[in-house]
Amino acid sequence: MPRAEHTRRGDNGLPVVVDRLRQYLAEQLPDQLPWEIVPDGERTVDHAASSAMRDAYADLITPFERALMPLRHDGADALDPRAKVWKWEENLLVGTFDLWLCDDPDRPHTWLVATVGLWTEPQLFDEEPAAGLGHFDFTPHHPLLFLPRPPAPATFTARVTSGSFPSRGTSRTKADDTLGTAHQWSANDPVALAERVARDLKLLWPHLTGPRRS
Q1: What pTM does this model have?
Q2: Which candidate, 152, 156, 47, 164, places its Cα nearest to that of 105?
């Protein structure tokens, strides 16, 4: 819903365009059962936060979309890349940017995903505002995005994992014969980083450069 429509509200407090939809749905439902029709405010806030995250890191996200989206296979090209806020703290949002590439050849029914963000060191979480997260709320060096964005200069990183790894709280994977691999890149220049990741992905998974298959 366009942002301007949020300010046009009726007597019940709902945006007018949402209330019209609510009334229409109420007319389509049988009268024998009680129905509750309410807008999902959490999804609205989540979408707005993720859009803000994408805008704040456009200099990082745009080069990766330009470099990696032409490589996608197995139906991944039908999935929109996602800037997603995962953790909410007072005056701080933490999220990731994920871009689906193809089926994971080492783990059936799982996508191979490229995740892009800032290089995170443990020392970062000793400083405000990230100090509120605590050292147990993140994995060191995993790509993360923050709002507000930390002051420059910054080191960016991209990560792709294939197969499975031990989950937190254990030192072993579920299957003895499982094989997990992780590939990670870092650079201060997001354009150079995106180009290097794209080049290496073509070498690691050559089928990404071949004809698309659905």
Answers
A1: 0.76
A2: 164
